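Sanity check

After download, print the first record. It should look like this:
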Amino acid sequence: MGRRRQPASLFVGELKSVVILARECYGDAIMLTPLIATLRKKYPGISISIVAFTRIIFEFFSADTNVTAVYHAKRNLKRYLFEFFPQKFDLLFNPKNHPSTHFYLQSLIIRARYKVGHRNTGHEALYNHLIDLAPGAHESTRNLALMGVIDNAPPQPCQPYIPHMPVSTAIASFLGGLMPESYIGINISAGTPGGHRTLEQWSELIRSFPEERFIIFSAPAKIAEKRELEDPHANVLPSPSTLNLYEVWLIIKKLKFLVTPDTSLVHIAACSDTPLVALYRHNPADSKEFSPLSTLQEVILSPTPDVVDIENIVVKRALSRMLEQVLVHRST
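Expected structure tokens:
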């Protein structure tokens, strides 16, 4: 099991089963869906198994009808050891382009006749094929590069998507009264340090566009701040709390456009090609590798590692430009 693998140029033989190690965050999962959908479209009868390392990603892919089975590498070990581990796959794919102990270990112990990873330290001994892409390649491009290993041809990528999940009565009712392309979304939450702006900054932005109407998004931990931002502004429509990403997407796809820090909502917007103004910390790798995929987009890069340091006048100008772009796009 630990012997050095013999490098191979491309996958050879019939492809009946694939196992993919899923990265740990929602944005990563969404950027993996174009590969999953492309595999399903190209090979309708293929078995696609996902190994998850976090609860949220396990639940995300458990809802995905393109996926055959999902296993949690750290929970429910009985199922993992007795149902998953005895299987042998045609192909294993590790999408991480940097060293990871857990991903390395799973790549080592999972039985697959052909293993694919990205070129990185320690990967040479483990994989049959190492993908070489230029630094800064987008996460979705890195994932879809697997198709070139299988088919030796550029893929026709599928759009990212959110798997169908339950919709609460409150959200269904809210969506029923929501006029398409009438609201600007503002997401006040962020998944990384330095990703938050102050409520004062968001309030000033809302007041600067009195003729526009807004909807506020937040993570569950920020519900109190969401309400604090909704209450004093007459042009903000209060919205129910969302219970899953699918509910978030159902609202986002009806927006005029979305304003958000660099979070999973950047990638949720791509699922419906919703226009986007995205605020990124000064981290060139993130702003390239996890940049928006929406057709209409504007990325604002902070001069510091904190988006709070983006001046509000810069954000206001970006919103004004996006309003003009959306108007032109509607008329064409």
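If your output differs, re-run the checksum step. Summary of this record's structure: Residues 278 and 299 are 5 Å apart (CA to CA).
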